Amino acid sequence: MKMKKVTAFMMTAALAASVLAGCGSGSEKQVVIYSNADDEAVEAMKETLDANGYEGKYLFQTFGTSELGGKLLAEGKDIEADMVTMSSFYLDSAQEQNNMFLDLTFDYKTLTEFPAFYAPITSQEGAIILNTEMLSENNLDRPESLKDLTKPEYKDLLSVTDIKSSSTAWLLMQALVSEYGENGAKDVLKGIYENAGAHIESSGSAPLKKIRAGEVAVGFGLRHQAVADKKDGLPVDYVDPKEGNFSLTESVAVIDKKEANPLAMEMAQCIVEKGRSELIRTYPNPIYEGEEADPENMSAYPKVFPEKLTVSLLERHQELSEECK
């Protein structure tokens, strides 16, 4: 009886000590990661973290770009996340408004200059996407430019994304404004929206899904996804528009919290240093020194918008878009 009481006491004490140790150890607290990345990127980042000793040490939550951007701007350092992967232009605006990110403590060498508080993880370009079978069935020409999408032959056979819902549409808008100016862009966009009709989508991936399903013949979406579908043997092809293949980067940043979780910075470094080899398979644009693009994946007209990409510029282009509907 006495031995049982002593044993029970010792077990209880040991359990209590274990719980207290766990509560007091910052390294045991899970890192909360917020991300606007698509499924392929999220999966690559999770696999990278798990393979490098961080399995079970993080919680990953995904949001739409506008939703997560709104949270960053509204909540600042009070956001629940310890780390975010997000469209770079939103990170720039959130830092300018809230000064909410730590400078990264690890070294990295990019092909172009980026701020010290984030490191790019993907670069994504836009392109015209096609269902080759529907083009043939409807005797449609392959468009060569975004302006071609205003031709009457594409009426009700075109799908595009609403810029108010998805940053994918901003790639189309940048190309139009850069090539034709804001007034000229309005003229082209009105024709595109008229042809799209009910196929103006709220999701950046929706046009490609409709292309795959044969619901439309032509659309605008992310170039790398169409490249992958074509390789997989689907009746999908792509055209680099003469107005240009504009791109957006997504980057990783660490929140400047009073009680920062040190694992957040470690995981950010892990994604950049260990994850790029996997991410570049899906997102083929080179970002870091030493990376090379497969010639098959290189776009014909890569361009950069002449103005710095900011949330205020996005809002200006969203207003332009609304005027065209």
UniProtKB/TrEMBL annotation:
<keyword id="KW-0732">Signal</keyword>
<dbReference type="Pfam" id="PF13343">
    <property type="entry name" value="SBP_bac_6"/>
</dbReference>
<protein>
    <submittedName>
        <fullName>Extracellular solute-binding protein</fullName>
    </submittedName>
</protein>
<feature type="signal peptide">
    <location>
        <begin position="1"/>
        <end position="21"/>
    </location>
</feature>
